[in-house]
């Protein structure tokens, strides 16, 4: 994403040079659409959409009990739809507009996509494609949080919370990291969304699961996943779609895109092996759920790092992040006692933090990384990364907390005990996933 | 007449059916069931959450037989369903008062 800025300034520089050489080409060199980049970004956008539906929906759906299957699918499906509309109405403006005096934190000025049309160009692609690509991130991130509330949240409260969260948390953080705000200015590296997407979603999930409280029967009833094959299919769609997410964040079909692609694959593969190894050693048997969980942890960890580490660094990052996420969901969650139903914090939050910090070390040329900017050392990069995480955690944590409390006091966050026991499919949506 | 109910390991069903056919049993009824005995259940682990599965899947088969065939039937089930490991199941024998074939109205051993 930082590439966009370098690309814009590069285009500007080229423009200046061109004026020196020729006086007639002024209108054309400002913005040229590259058909290769454009074609790739259309595909990448669709891939990110597939990550959410059906990828994430199935990944989550398989993990809940059968009486809540449709509720999770529906929560993801409607969240994606709601965010898509909000994005073009004002989300894109808040995230990528010029906020004037408040530009460090928030953008503005292009609500309803004003000023954008079929001829507007962003980098080397039509701006509408950039808007839609970013829309899929805006749609996916709140959908990730759904996993923390699964099996007990009121559908209306979920939508109100996620709409408010996307407006007050996602859009500002996105602007701070990718829209030219303070985190970008600090020099933090977040290529495809470690802070914006995964740490952000993970922290909201943690706060939400604590305020919402545990599911009825948590720790006593059998809450085993009802369909792990769905979870495996979902995880695989997430894996495949993530190439759109990570490689697409290059916004071009170029050499860096190649690096991002191989890093995304090997980090994820190493993370599957890491989780399986931890389970095998720690619990005696490597599970399919563990393999799928490891894949997601690896994908999350490589997300911020995929353009600055080398393939060997990616393997290390994926493996380590997976082992730490394994510890978070099997030990940390139990010792802290919160019920993050589908481990959104344990996987997205924890692996996201490991990825954002780990890249500061692994981007060193000694580890095959791309190296640091002038005047930046491993330590200073690490500190900047930690600061970017700190800002995200604080901003997201505080605002999420306030939003949850307001909604809990006004609408109520949870369904009734009776409805929770009966399952959300029939009580919230009036339908049943499976008939015998 | 006797009514024999056997609880067996699901994967043994085909062998038991073959053994019963060989000794002339004309029909059996099979149900998928769950239960526990001395084998007890097992534990499953999902991301650190451990669940005890108390009830294991078994197959229940029911067969009505004449008194003179009873011994062979029980023997055939016992032999074909055995693995020697815990959880092989049990055979229950009950006396049977009456049988009627619905199509023809035959009763007693004629109807078996």
Task: Describe this protein's structure.
The complex is a heterodimer of chains A (436) and B (112). Chain A is mostly helical. Chain A has a single domain, classed as Ammonium transporter fold (Orthogonal Bundle), CATH 1.10.3430.10. Chain A has a two-stranded antiparallel ribbon. In chain A, helix 3 packs parallel to helix 5, helix 9 packs antiparallel against helix 10 and helix 13 packs antiparallel against helix 14. About 4% of the residues of chain A have low confidence. In chain B, the strands form 2 sheets. Chain B has a 4-stranded antiparallel beta sheet, covered by helices on one side. Chain B has one domain: Alpha-Beta Plaits (2-Layer Sandwich), CATH 3.30.70.120. Chain B is α+β, with helices and mostly antiparallel strands. The radius of gyration of chain B is 17 Å and the shape is elongated. The longest helix of chain B is centred in the C-terminal third of the chain and has 12 residues.
Work out the count of structural domains of chain B.
1
Number of domains of chain A: 1
Shape by Cα distribution of chain B: elongated
**Termini gap of chain A:** 49 Å
Oligomeric state as shown: heterodimer
The name of the CATH topology of chain A is: Ammonium transporter fold
Which CATH top level class of chain A fits?
A: Mainly Alpha
What is the name of the CATH superfamily of chain A?
Ammonium transporter AmtB like domains
CATH architecture of chain A: Orthogonal Bundle
Task: Specify Rg of chain A, calculated over alpha carbons.
Answer: 21 Å
Blueprint (SSEs and pairs):
The complex is a heterodimer of chains A (436) and B (112).
Chain A: H1 2-21, H2 26-29, H3 35-63, H4 69-96, E1 121-122, E2 125-126, H5 127-149, H6 155-178, H7 182-186, H8 194-212, H9 228-248, H10 255-283, H11 288-302, H12 311-336, H13 344-362, H14 378-410, H15 417-422, H16 424-429
Antiparallel strand pairs in A: 1-2
Helix pairs in contact in A: 3-4, 3-5, 3-9, 4-5, 4-6, 5-6, 5-8, 6-8, 6-14, 8-13, 8-14, 9-10, 9-11, 10-11, 10-12, 11-12, 11-13, 12-13, 13-14
Chain B: E1 2-8, H1 13-22, E2 29-35, E3 42-46, E4 49-53, E5 56-65, H2 70-81, E6 89-95
Antiparallel strand pairs in B: 1-5, 1-6, 2-5, 3-4
Helix pairs in contact in B: 1-2
């Amino acid at each position: 994403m930082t590439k966009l800025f370098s690309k814009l300034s590069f285009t500007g520089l080229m423009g200046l040079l061109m004026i020196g050489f020729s006086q007639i080409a002024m209108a054309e060199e400002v913005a040229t659409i590259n058909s290769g980049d454009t074609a790739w970004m259309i595909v990448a956008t669709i891939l990110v959409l597939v990550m959410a539906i059906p990828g994430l929906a199935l990944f989550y759906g398989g993990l809940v009990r059968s009486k809540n299957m449709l509720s999770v699918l529906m929560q993801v499906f409607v969240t994606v739809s709601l965010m898509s509309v909000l994005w073009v109405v004002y989300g894109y403006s808040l995230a990528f507009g010029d906020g004037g005096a408040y530009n460090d934190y928030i953008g503005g000025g292009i609500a309803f996509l004003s000023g954008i049309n079929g001829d507007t160009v962003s980098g080397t692609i039509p701006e509408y494609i950039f808007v839609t690509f970013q829309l899929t991130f805006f749609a996916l991130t709140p959908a990730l949080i759904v996993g923390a509330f699964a099996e007990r949240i009121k559908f209306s409260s979920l939508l109100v919370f996620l709409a408010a969260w996307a407006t007050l948390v996602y859009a500002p953080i996105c602007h701070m990291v990718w829209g030219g705000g303070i985190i970008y200015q600090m020099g933090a590296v977040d290529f495809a969304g470690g802070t914006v997407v995964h740490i952000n979603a993970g922290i909201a999930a943690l706060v939400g699961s604590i305020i919402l409280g545990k599911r009825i029967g948590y720790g006593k009833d059998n809450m085993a996943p009802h369909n792990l094959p769905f979870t495996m299919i979902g995880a695989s769609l997430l894996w495949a779609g993530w190439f759109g997410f990570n490689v697409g964040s290059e916004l071009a079909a170029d050499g860096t895109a190649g690096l991002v692609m191989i890093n995304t694959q090997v980090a994820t593969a190493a993370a599957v092996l890491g989780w399986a190894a931890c389970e095998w050693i720690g619990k005696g048997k490597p599970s399919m759920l563990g393999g799928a969980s490891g894949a997601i942890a690896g994908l999350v960890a490589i997300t911020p790092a995929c353009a600055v580490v080398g393939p060997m660094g990616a393997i290390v990052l994926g493996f380590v992040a997976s082992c730490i996420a394994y510890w978070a969901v099997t030990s940390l969650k139990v010792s802290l006692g919160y019920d993050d139903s589908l481990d959104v914090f344990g996987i997205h939050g924890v692996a996201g933090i490991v990825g954002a910090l780990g890249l500061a070390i692994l981007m060193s040329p000694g580890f095959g990384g791309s190296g640091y900017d002038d005047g930046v050392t491993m330590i200073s990069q690490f500190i900047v990364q930690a600061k970017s995480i700190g800002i995200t955690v604080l901003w997201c944590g505080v605002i999420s907390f306030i939003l949850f409390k307001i909604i809990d006091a006004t609408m109520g966050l949870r369904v009734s005990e009776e409805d929770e026991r009966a399952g959300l499919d029939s009580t919230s949506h009036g339908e049943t996933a499976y008939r015998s | 007449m006797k009514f024999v109910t056997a609880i067996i390991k699901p994967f043994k069903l085909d062998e038991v059916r073959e053994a019963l056919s060989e000794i002339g049993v004309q029909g059996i009824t099979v149900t998928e069931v769950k239960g526990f005995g001395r084998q007890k259940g097992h534990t499953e682990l999902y991301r650190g959450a451990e669940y005890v599965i108390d009830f294991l899947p078994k197959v229940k088969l029911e067969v009505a037989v004449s008194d003179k065939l009873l011994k062979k039937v029980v023997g055939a089930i016992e032999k074909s369903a055995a693995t020697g490991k815990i959880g092989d199941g049990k055979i229950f024998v009950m006396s049977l008062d009456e049988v009627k074939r619905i199509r023809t109205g035959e009763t007693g051993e004629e109807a078996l």
